[in-house]
Design a protein that fits this description.
Layout lengths: L20 E4 L5 H10 L6 E2 L4 E5 L8 E3 L5 H4 L2 H8 L12 E7 L5 E4 L8 E8 L2 E7 L12 E6 L4 E5 L2 H4 E5 L4 E5 L13 H4 L13 E4 L3 E7 L3 E3 H7 L6
Parallel strand pairs: 4-15
Antiparallel strand pairs: 1-10, 2-3, 3-5, 5-14, 6-11, 7-10, 7-14, 8-9, 8-11, 12-13
The chain binds 2-oxoglutaric acid and fe (ii) ion.
């Protein structure tokens, strides 16, 4: 019976993590990666202390409202088409992403621990381009202002991969990208998605190609761009029509 067939998406769930993180290596091809990198507008970056950022199509208003504007076509195809096939945004209010935060990290850069918060439906789909980085996720057993963080998990985001974070992980965890030039001690015991990596051998120590022991490998950071797709809950069509807003920052 079709209903008893295993959900193919489960193959990509990171099993050692709390629900739900999914990791898909080689979500896009090297050609698609190069094309995406060439289409990111060079003049729309906002420089932050440890990374630079583009909010596409625009920055949310103070009330966390998106002024309706279509995503540019380079961010839609093929990525959003594949999201639709996988049903990633099937249960969000708009059934599709309507906002993308594009981050760029040079070696030594990162993003401090944070939650993505209530402006969005609890789904983030992140495509990595360029270099690999370690994303750290800290599970919080209680509301963040009451209890300190405990268990930290490490997720290696390879170039061309897709990382999907769904509720309850979206709500119960904080995440960061450490601002380092090298991600060290890479092996099965310390990298939650080791067995889902497309090219784990690249990151293993020379004496430890299966990642199970040894001294652990190192990822030497190079510039990495992340495309983080989200569905903003509050969308204003009126404001963008009347005020002519909604342009890209
Ligand atoms: O670059 C990443 O993978 C994480 C970015 C992030 O956490 C964010 O934009 O909220
Ligand atoms: Fe985030």
């Amino acid at each position: 019976m079709a209903s008893s067939a295993p959900d193919p998406r489960l193959a990509f769930r990171i099993p050692s993590l709390p629900p739900s993180f999914y990791y898909i290596p080689s979500f896009i091809s090297p050609e698609e990666e190069a094309s995406l990198l060439s289409k990111i507008p060079p003049n729309r970056w906002t420089n932050l202390t440890h990374r630079r950022l583009q909010a596409v199509a625009s920055t949310l208003t103070k009330s966390n409202t998106l002024l309706a504007a279509p995503l540019p076509s380079y961010l839609l195809d093929p990525i959003v088409t594949r999201f639709t096939t996988l049903g990633i945004f099937a249960h969000t209010p708009h059934k599709a992403p309507n906002h993308v935060l594009v981050n760029e990290y040079k070696p030594g850069e990162g993003i401090m621990a944070h939650e993505d918060g209530p402006a969005y439906a609890p789904v983030v789909a992140t495509v990595s381009l360029g270099g690999a980085v370690m994303l750290e996720s800290a599970v919080n057993p209680a509301p963040i202002h009451i209890a300190p963080l405990y268990t930290t998990h490490r997720i290696l985001c390879e170039p061309r991969s897709l990382l999907v974070t769904l509720a309850p992980a979206y709500i119960n965890t904080m995440h960061c990208v450490p601002a380092v030039t090298h991600d060290v001690d890479l092996r099965r015991a310390t990298v939650a998605n080791w067995d889902l990596l497309g090219e784990a051998w690249r990151y293993a120590a020379a004496d430890d190609v299966d990642g199970s022991g040894g001294s652990g490998g190192t990822n030497v950071r190079t510039t990495r761009v992340s495309l983080t797709y989200r569905d903003v809950l509050k969308v204003s069509n009126a404001a963008s029509r009347v005020l002519g807003l909604g342009g890209r920052r």
